[in-house]
């Protein structure tokens, strides 16, 4: 499955800020669950991705797993390797869990250097 991601804006036909019903209309049926014990709202599981919502049920982020390929500006960013990803998003910072770009609100979870998921959120998502 191909996913075209526009940093800080959305992915495919889903825009950050859409309500839950609009997202489900685009992506189909979801399983609703609490991803973390301290979550204020539920997350939608679409199998290949999890969509996160704020307290007003507005889409604020998506986490995409390695069942999908993620492209930015028609360049494959996930799954690839750190060098390729850093060539696409130049301000990626590397830490123990992977890569993060605060300006683009994108994080790649890659423990031990192996990409497992990519998270993209609304502008300022990682600043909260």
Description:
- This protein has one domain (2-123).
- With 128 residues, it is mostly beta strands.
- Helices cover 12% and strands 40% of the residues.
Instruction: Choose one word for the global shape.
Output: globular
Order of helices and strands: EEEHEEEEEEHEEEE
Q: In angstroms, what is the radius of gyration? A: 14 Å
Report the structural category. Answer: mainly beta
Please, what is the average pLDDT?
A: 96
Count the beta strands.
13
Q: How many domain units?
A: 1
Summed up, the helix count is 2
Percent helix: 10-25%
Strand order of the largest sheet: 4-5-6-7-13-12-11-10
Unreliable segments (pLDDT under 50, ≥5 consecutive)? none
Strand content: 35-45%
Largest sheet descriptor: 8 strands, antiparallel
Distance between the termini: 30 Å
Write the layout of secondary structure elements.
Layout: E1 2-6, E2 10-11, E3 14-15, H1 20-27, E4 31-33, E5 43-45, E6 49-53, E7 59-65, E8 69-72, E9 75-78, H2 82-88, E10 93-95, E11 98-101, E12 106-109, E13 117-121
Parallel strand pairs: 1-8
Antiparallel strand pairs: 1-2, 2-3, 4-5, 5-6, 6-7, 7-13, 8-9, 10-11, 11-12, 12-13
Please describe the structure with a list of short key phrases separated by commas or semicolons.
eight-stranded antiparallel beta sheet, mainly beta, globular, 128 residues, five-stranded mixed beta sheet
């Amino acid at each position: 499955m191909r996913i075209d991601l526009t940093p800080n804006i959305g992915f495919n036909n889903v825009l950050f800020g859409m309500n839950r019903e609009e997202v489900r209309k685009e992506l189909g049926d979801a399983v609703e669950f609490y991803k973390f014990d301290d979550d204020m709202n539920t997350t939608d599981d679409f199998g290949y991705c999890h969509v996160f919502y704020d307290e007003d049920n507005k889409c604020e982020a998506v986490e995409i797993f390695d069942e999908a390929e993620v492209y930015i500006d028609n360049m494959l960013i996930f799954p690839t390797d750190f060098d390729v990803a850093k060539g696409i998003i130049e301000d990626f910072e590397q830490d123990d869990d992977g890569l993060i770009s605060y300006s683009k609100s994108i994080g790649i979870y890659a423990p031990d250097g192996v990409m497992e998921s990519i998270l993209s959120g609304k502008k300022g998502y990682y600043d909260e």
